[in-house]
Amino acid sequence: MNLLLPRLSLCLVSFLFTITIAQESPLITRIAFGSCANQNAPHPIWEAINKFDPQLFIWMGDNIYGDILKPIKFIGKERTLGPWKNSPKFVPSSEEEMKLRYAKAKSNPGYSRLKRNAKVIGTWDDHDFGLNDAGKEFDHKVTNQRLMLDFLDEPLSIIFFLSGVYASYTFGPSNRKVKVILLDTRYHRDPLRSDGSILGDTQWAWLEEELRGPRSEITIIGSSVQVISNLSATTGPVFYMESWGRFPKERERLFKLISDTKRNGVIFISGDVHFGEITRYDCAVEYPLYDVTSSGLEQSIETFFPLPLRFIVRLLFWYTPSTMRLINDNCKFKSCTYGQSNFGAISIDWNANPATMRLEIRDVNGHTVLGTNVSLSELQAQGSNSPTNPPTKGKSQRYCTLEVELPGTTRYRLAALIYFTFSVFAMAFVGPIIGVVLTITACVYKCKLD
Ligand SMILES: *[C@@H]1O[C@H](CO)[C@@H](O)[C@H](O)[C@H]1NC(C)=O
Ligand SMILES: *[C@@H]1O[C@H](CO)[C@@H](O)[C@H](O)[C@H]1NC(C)=O
């Protein structure tokens, strides 16, 4: 019985989603997506998204900033920064406040226009889940799930069957089907550094069913946090980001599931990190897995810095090693990341032979700043019984080496640079102070003697 009940609700959920989608099957050729949209900002990016004219828009999380960021305080009663901090930097806001923020986001004129012309679906990340970096322990999650589904105009009835906001949708006529699977990486996630679960048992069982389900030419798996890139391995120990890479067992399980279900044509989309990046991993399954990350519809990393310092951000991106980042001639900057306002754009040319997807990150003017073309024939397992196509497990190969496998001198070069710079500055400031103190002490001692 215990086993049957979740199973039954799982079927019901799949059934509910199937009926809503079965009626609509227009050919999908343009999909846009994005994440990290502070509801208080004006969002000129919607204009570029509307110009791209997507049939489908996917929210990838941090669709609003629901939690409250407390001011940075080193000293005083409530200290939010430093090893001596005694107060959390983020606190959840009330249900009323969350509602107001969603209302503000929903009433943005550019977004309203998009919503009239495109189907809008989505998942959430930590700030709209309700608290920075939060997981399954967060006690506002039930209420906030209701508010989030309400924002998306999803039927609230699904809440009775579903804990979390994961869902799947299939679009398009037969032989040109696009399936979108949206994961919930928050509701069931174990604490960071636990190497526990991201999805939880029920969502894993559901995902397996979805991947084994009817064939689709393209399967887009949306995860709020990055699946392929594990930048934390090269930015640590200075700072860490959230990603599937931080849960290595869970990430292996995901790749194995794609392999085992023999699902072809899978690509990932993600958000969260406040910059745009396209990554690929050639040695996870039998074909290259792409992860297109668009982050910062509005909250992008360069906007956190004053204009004259923004080039430093790009320089640091370029300097930080990455083994999975797609490097090609379509990048606006040499780093092949993009730290300004951006959205993800997927265009599908079904008439090309073979059918081809164009994966792009576009800027606030709609110009491509990162991009690549991927033909669907590239995203097919070759079949394990074909001796002419052995899996390309070569450790030195680009897009195949894990970040943690880099030699220490390369892997930690960002940390080395930052700690070195920090020490030089510290010496430059602290050195003279020590000098003055020593001189005065020596003088006082000498003066006393005299
Ligand atoms: C990602 O990086 C973290 C931090 O260095 C590391 O603990 C983890 O094992 C890495 N994951 C993978 C899949 O390499
Ligand atoms: C990629 O596809 C677009 C059309 O979707 C085409 O205009 C462009 O030339 C292609 N680029 C390459 C390098 O094949």
Automatic annotation (TrEMBL):
It holds the Pfam family PhoD. InterPro entries: Metallo-depent_PP-like, PhoD-like_MPP, PhoD-like_sf. Keywords: Membrane, Signal, Transmembrane, Transmembrane helix. The chain crosses the membrane at residues 417-445. Residues 1-22 form the signal peptide. This is PhoD-like phosphatase metallophosphatase domain-containing protein. Residues 32-129, 165-283 form the PhoD-like phosphatase metallophosphatase domain. It comes from the Eukaryota. The lineage of its organism: Eukaryota, Viridiplantae, Streptophyta, Embryophyta, Tracheophyta.
